[in-house]
């Protein structure tokens, strides 16, 4: 317990903003997230800044983009900006042949409206495979709407299906200003960050040198704000960013958070492929008698899952790779499952998919983040998160309701043999996984996935 107190003291030393607990709100569904998103766009008076992996050219994406443009036409002085990943914006969805990049839609909208909005592509690395913009957060005046979700049909529960995520609304001028300031300092007017709603988008090759310089700036970049000692009735919130393995403040804080567990840890990740350091921390907590709950999507709830009756594509092997990781982890920790100390909860709900990430520690600490808690997030992508410290338990009821909502469609794993293994998989999947194992490509895949 003394060690847990030490790690908690490290968290308490972090600079933070003191935020009224009554201004922290949890939304419980993709539909509610979309409804609130549209309402905040319509009511914004001075600024809108959206940062996401992508805004897709589909029904929901066009609805959001239309709302942004109409808000700008109604109030031309309104500062409306959208930042998406540079590479992702210029290709279609994986597995959708012939689909054009979203940048074409952005250019189409720019020609249609008298007052276009600003849309920029952020190239974290020279190639998408080596790292993307995975930063999250939408600011509307002084309100931050934070989710791991991107903007398309399934993330916004359009056309009958949804991808489940976490959704938080926090109203605080200091927090909103810190989020905007980060974008202003690192993205705005940077030669590596071009506009995507103009026809002359430079290629990644042409931007090679600016991207290298930009990457170094991102590695050093952090949220800047004046520290505010937490006042009674308020929670301490620390926004954090991180890129790369070395000196990554977000990664370090997540590990400190886990190691500060006194009684119980509740962790969500959509793609079970924990970084080795984080896996060690979790096992250490189990050995100390802490209760650990891991909420993971069933392989059929993975966004890359292809039902056996449909034609198989290589990308469809990913959910099985993640499941193989989970089976090995469950087998190695079966004793803790028997003891009730390790709860592996598998989420599945109809044909919907699972995209939750983040942590709760005891009843007073939480991390809201888009970080997938895997090697790719740990070392390649630009990530961010919000550390919440709530010693008065002002948010306990709100977060307990959120956890109950998350667990609504989960089943607890009683034994590792409940998870399928190689011989149970469809023949095309078996062939693919055997080839991966034979070539030892799984070592590289674990870093990139």
List keywords for this structure.
35% helix, nine-stranded mixed sheet, seven-stranded mixed sheet, 18 strands, 449 residues, 14 helices, alpha/beta
Structure description:
The protein is an alpha/beta fold. The chain is built from 14 helices and 18 strands. The strands form 3 sheets. The protein has a 9-stranded mixed sheet with strand order 1-10-17-16-15-11-12-13-18, with helices on both faces. Strands 2-9-7-6-3-4-5 form a 7-stranded mixed sheet, sandwiched between helices. Strands 8-14 form a two-stranded parallel sheet. Helix 4 links the parallel strand 4 and strand 5 (118-122). It is globular, with a radius of gyration of 21 Å.
Helices and strands in order:
Blueprint: H1 2-12, E1 17-20, E2 24-27, H2 30-43, E3 47-51, H3 59-74, E4 79-85, H4 103-112, E5 118-122, E6 137-140, E7 143-147, E8 163-164, E9 167-171, H5 173-186, H6 208-220, E10 234-242, H7 249-259, E11 264-269, H8 276-287, E12 291-297, H9 318-332, H10 334-339, E13 342-347, E14 353-354, E15 358-361, E16 365-369, H11 375-379, E17 383-389, H12 396-407, E18 410-412, H13 427-438, H14 442-448
Parallel strand pairs: 3-4, 4-5, 8-14, 11-12, 12-13
Antiparallel strand pairs: 1-10, 2-9, 3-6, 6-7, 7-9, 10-17, 11-15, 13-18, 15-16, 16-17
Helix pairs in contact: 1-7, 2-3
InterPro entries: PGS1, PLD-like_dom, PLipase_D/transphosphatidylase
Protein name: CDP-diacylglycerol--serine O-phosphatidyltransferase
Enzyme class: transferase
């Amino acid at each position: 317990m003394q060690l847990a107190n030490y790690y908690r003291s490290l968290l308490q030393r972090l600079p933070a903003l003191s935020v009224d607990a009554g201004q922290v709100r949890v939304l419980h569904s993709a539909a509610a997230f979309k409804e609130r998103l549209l309402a905040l766009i319509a009511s914004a008076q001075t600024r809108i800044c959206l940062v996401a992996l992508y805004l897709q050219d589909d029904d929901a994406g066009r609805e959001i983009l239309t709302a942004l443009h109409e808000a700008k036409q109604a109030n031309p002085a309104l500062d409306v900006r959208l930042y998406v990943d540079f590479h992702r914006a210029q290709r279609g969805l994986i597995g959708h042949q012939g689909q054009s990049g979203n940048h074409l839609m952005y250019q189409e909208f720019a020609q249609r409206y008298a007052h276009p909005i600003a849309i920029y592509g952020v190239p974290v690395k020279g190639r998408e495979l080596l790292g993307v913009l995975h930063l999250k957060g939408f600011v509307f005046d002084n309100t931050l709407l934070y989710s791991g979700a991107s903007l398309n049909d399934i993330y916004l529960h359009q056309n009958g299906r949804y991808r489940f995520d976490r959704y938080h609304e926090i109203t605080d001028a200091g927090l909103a200003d810190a989020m905007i300031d980060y974008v202003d300092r690192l993205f705005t007017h940077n030669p590596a960050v071009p506009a995507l709603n103009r026809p002359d988008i430079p290629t990644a090759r042409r931007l090679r040198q600016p991207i290298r310089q930009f990457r170094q700036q991102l590695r050093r970049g952090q949220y800047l704000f004046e520290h505010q000692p937490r006042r009674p009735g308020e929670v301490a919130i620390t926004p954090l960013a991180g890129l790369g393995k070395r000196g990554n403040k977000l990664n370090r804080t997540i590990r400190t958070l886990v190691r500060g567990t006194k009684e119980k840890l509740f962790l969500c990740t959509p793609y079970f492929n924990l970084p080795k350091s984080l896996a060690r921390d979790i096992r250490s907590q189990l050995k100390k008698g802490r209760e650990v709950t891991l909420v993971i999507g069933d392989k059929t709830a993975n966004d890359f899952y292809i039902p056996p009756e449909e034609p198989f594509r290589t990308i469809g092997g990913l959910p099985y790779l993640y499941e193989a990781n989970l089976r090995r982890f469950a087998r190695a920790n079966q004793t803790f499952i028997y003891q009730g100390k390790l709860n592996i909860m598998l989420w599945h709900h109809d044909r919907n998919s699972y995209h939750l990430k983040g942590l709760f520690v005891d009843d007073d600490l939480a991390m809201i983040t888009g970080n997938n808690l895997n090697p790719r997030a740990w070392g390649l992508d630009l990530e961010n998160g919000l550390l919440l410290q709530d010693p008065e338990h002002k948010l306990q009821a709100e977060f307990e309701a959120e956890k109950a909502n998350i667990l609504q469609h989960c089943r607890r794993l009683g034994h590792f043999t409940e998870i399928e293994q190689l011989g149970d998989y469809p023949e095309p999947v078996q062939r693919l996984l055997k080839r991966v194992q034979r070539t030892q490509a799984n070592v590289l895949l674990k870093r990139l996935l």
